[in-house]
Amino acid sequence: MTTYEDVERANSYTASSLQDEPQNVESLIVMTWNIRFGAARIPFFGDSCGDRVLMTQAETEGYLNSIVDYINSTEPDILLLQEVDISSKRSAYVNQLQYILDRTHLNYGAYASMWKAEIIPSDGLGKVDAGNAVLSRWKITDAERIQLPLRTDQDALTQYFYLRRNILKAKINIPGLNTTLYAVNIHATAFARDDTKQKHIDKFYDVLSAINENDVFVAGGDLNALNGEYVDNRDFCEVDKCADDVCDGDVENNLIYQGSYFNHLENEELLLNQLYTFYPAIPLEQTNMAENFTHSTWIDKNEPFIDINANKLHDDGDDGPLNRKLDYIFSSDSLANGMTHQDAFYLSDHAPVSATLTFP
To answer: Is there a contact between 293 and 324 (Cβ–Cβ < 8 Å)?
Structure first.
């Protein structure tokens, strides 16, 4: 399993054919999207109670083509992606970052691996290289990978092969802009039973707060956290469970199952409040509205797979197709036109979020 320094240089990518860079920029569109390694709504073993482990190259490229089409239709200027596979057996070793760059209007990319191993000895998963990416119309002049704290609620063997989550901070050079622009991307922990989630969100806040007040940032990602105004009393642990597992586990028999998003820490509902001292794409009071939900697991055992070509809306009531908000955008400056793209629900288990940043 690959290990990392606390801060190190991120990997750089360039499209095979560069598009003209917009000049005299007065505003830009930023989008965040967890693309689920191009697996759309396939019922994978790790996140949707399914049994699939590997995709064929045709499947991978087919789903990526749909993602590319959506990116081209919405035309973000800066794109924050999570769960991007670079060289993973599960997605037929397709370099998804390069694939997207080569087929969209975006020219440059930065990548920070979150999960990199020559072999994961579980369920035939094999080689994995997956992580966060920032894509931009304009040149990325500096990008760094900032390591996030590891979980402390795992045994040593599990932790050895587990994810190394990170923050990807990229400096973007926009010609003629009289300020420095940073794009900051995070994919925080989901099911930790210790205080790792709080540490991740605190670190994200600290990184953003440390950016010079004369500079501008757009930041976001999959925070795997519900907001403090969430009023739904459902137990997401129950909603997310697979098979007969229960979220609290069977302590007497030393069985600990996968946890939920929202019931581990005292005052967990307040974790995101500090980020709302910045400017959000979606106001806090609107994040508990159904039209702004961005995620759901797919738990219907009778019909677990969505055909992306059919764009079929399968509604399980409270449990789908989207039933919570986990994806967010924030900025040092005011954002406009905040939007949750729920029409893309069939391309991933997350919907994209976008907003417009206007320069003074």
So the answer is: yes
pLDDT digit string (tens) for 273-298? 999 999 999 999 898 888 898 988 76
Secondary structure class of 220 (helix, strand, coil): strand
Contact yes or no for 175/21 (Cβ under 8 A): yes
Instruction: Locate the DSSP E strands across 35-161.
Output: 78-85, 108-120, 126-136, 140-147
Contact criterion met (CB below 8 Å) for 103 and 63 = no
Determine contact, residues 227/218, Cβ cutoff 8 Å: no
DSSP character at residue 50: -
User: Tokens for 13?
Assistant: 């990518």
Partners of 14 in the β-ladder: 108
- pLDDT on residue 228: 62
* pLDDT tens-digit readout, 222-266: 999 887 655 455 556 555 555 444 455 444 443 344 445 555 566
In the sheet that holds 108-120, the strands lie side by side as 11-14, 108-120, 126-136, 78-85, 27-34, 353-358, 335-340
Question: What domains appear along the chain, each with residue ranges and CATH number?
Answer: 7-358 (3.60.10.10)
**Could you report the per-residue pLDDT of 305-339, keeping only the tens digit for each?**
444 444 444 444 444 568 788 999 999 999 999 99
How many angstroms separate the CA atoms of 106 and 336, rounded?
22
Per the listing, tokens 């926009």 go with: 174
Cβ atoms of residues 220 and 328 within 8 Å = yes
**Prediction pTM value:** 0.90
Residue type, position 86, single letter: I
- Token code pair at residue 35: 């693309």
